[in-house]
Amino acid sequence: MKKAVKIALSNLIYYSGVPALIRKISSANCQIKILAYHRVSNDDFDPLWMNNKIDHFEKQMQYIKKYYTPVSLEEAVELLIRKKKIPQNLIVVTFDDGYKDNYVNAYPILFRNKIPATIFLTVNGIEKNELLWFDVICEAIKLTAETKIDLQKFGFGTYSLDTLYDRVKVANIITTLAKKLKKEEIEAFVNYILERLSVKSEVMNISNTMLNWEEINKMSKGGISYGSHGMTHSILSNLTAAELEYEIIQSKRIIELKTGLKIKLFAYPNGKNNNFNTHIEERLKICGYAGACTLENGYNDKLSNLFALKRINICGKSLTNFYGSFSKVLFASRIDRSTNNYFKIF
Fold first, then answer.
1. Considering the entire predicted model, what is its pTM?
2. Which of 78, 126, 136, 314 would suit a FRET pair with 337, their CA atoms being 20 to 30 Å apart?
């Protein structure tokens, strides 16, 4: 019911022409919108709501090319640093984690539409060609022959895995709970799940999940830039001082070594307000970063904290109509301030 009302209101507002008019004349649009993506693939198993279907992504890029001015994140940050007047309708495309489908599926679309993008790389996943810890959990739940999992040892519950719906829901619940654990606890937690579900890591689809350095360097010649997403996708506010330094310094050093590029930007893993703090921001500055992105929803202007830049998370599941097709109207309402304000009641 909620989605039906939202779709109806979105259509009413969009086709009224009001958003286009506001986008054209409003000073509110003299802000920088940063879109946050993760994956672009046709995989239907998406418990973490990180995926956009390939044809949906293409339509999204065509939309922003038509109605916005896509710029690189570096350009956007430079405008904010210099506190220059921000042109209307600037938009930035970013990706978190460093999945191979960014190269296979997203990059050709970006290149074809001449849209720059920044990918925040999780270095260990690339260096070791291994799944990120939350992907290991999701993949194990997807593959297991077991019909339940007992996690009371970690203070959690016992969960049914009878149906695909159960598995999607449980994968989301468990990964969310795991984010509260310390770094060393997560490794033990993941190993315990693999053991309880009788899934061996070697049966998982590892080789085709993360980018490699050859692909990364190839994309850098075609409008893609890079930032750090840490070494292990650990939530920074959960780390010791030594672990924090490792995540932000070592990741920067390795990416620069492998690409020959200067890495100036960071994206906080998980990206919520409680996942970073002023101490972490200061450490990033001292280590040579010029800015950092969150996953807090919103826009950026000359008064924005460069180390708490807001982004608009783009998830394909929330941008489809009742038939599963991409909804241009819902996408427009997601990224346009003039329509977003209508949905605060939801």
1. 0.91
2. 78
Average pLDDT, the chain: 90
The structural domains of the chain, with segments of one domain joined by +, span 31-129+208-314, 133-203
Secondary structure (3-state) at 66: helix
Q: And the tokens for 285?
A: 């500055």
CA atoms of 308 and 281, how far apart (whole Å): 8
- Evaluate if residue 269 carries a pLDDT over 60: yes
pLDDT category of residue 338 using cuts at 50, 70 and 90:
very low
Between helices 328-335 and 54-67, what is the axis angle to 10°? 60
Of 244, 251, 254, nearest to 281 (Cα)? 244
Per-residue pLDDT at 16:
56
Contact 280, 270 (CB under 8 A): no
Q: In 3D, which of 317, 325, 122, 104 has the Cα closest to residue 219?
A: 104
HSE-CB of 78 using CA atoms within 13 angstroms: 5
Q: Tell me which of 3.20.20.370, 3.30.2350.10, 3.40.1490.10, 1.10.10.10 is the CATH number of domain 31-129+208-314.
A: 3.20.20.370
| Per-residue pLDDT at 341 | 42
